[in-house]
Amino acid sequence: MSTELELPFRPDTQLTEVMRLRVQSLQQRGQKRQDGERLLRPNEAVYRLDFTKQSLRFSHWTVRLVQPGRLTVTATSQLWTPDLTNLMTRQLLEPAGVFWRAADDAHNAPVQCYEADAHEFGERIAELAKVRKVMYFLFAFAEGCSPETADCSITFTVDS
């Protein structure tokens, strides 16, 4: 028998703030980032996914965009330990999940995405859940999308 488990992506405001302070500190000192370091951009925030179970199979994404805009979700690898190291570009996983709502979409139209990439991304997250209790993601908000107008979760099938 299998059941579904929907996990919401939650903003990690503390980690986002630490990463913003890193950018600010470099700017104030006139320094450059480390070679390969990935700095947080102004339209990005760090989100986390906490796994309550480890044996998961990807089912589907639930993304709500209240208004037209684009949300790009990029996972970080298990090699990134945010309390010890800066985020490096090599620690960003491919593919990213790209979700959008166009200005001319009907209000009740489903959010669009690159389905093959989104599915592969979901399967990759399920694989990583086998060895992780928490995973971090960069959410990039663009074209009218913002943290206040976007909501994202991922649903898995749990075998029991």
Could you describe the largest sheet, including whether it forms a barrel? 6 strands, antiparallel
The rounded distance between the terminal residues' Cα atoms is 6 Å
Number of strands: 9
Query: Low-confidence parts, pLDDT < 50 over ≥5 residues?
Result: none
Shape: globular
Q: Counting H and I runs of at least 4 residues, what is the number of helices?
A: 2
Structural category is alpha+beta
N-to-C order of helices and strands: EEHEEEEEHEE
Strand order of the largest sheet: 2-3-8-5-6-7
Helical content, roughly?
10-25%
How does this model look, in words?
With 160 residues, this protein is an alpha+beta fold. It is 20% helix and 37% strand. The mean pLDDT is 93.
Protein traits:
globular, six-stranded antiparallel β-sheet, three-stranded antiparallel β-sheet, 160 residues, 9 strands, 20% helix, alpha+beta, single chain
Characterize this entry briefly:
It contains two helices and nine strands; from the N terminus they run ββαβββββαββ. By secondary structure, it is an alpha+beta fold.
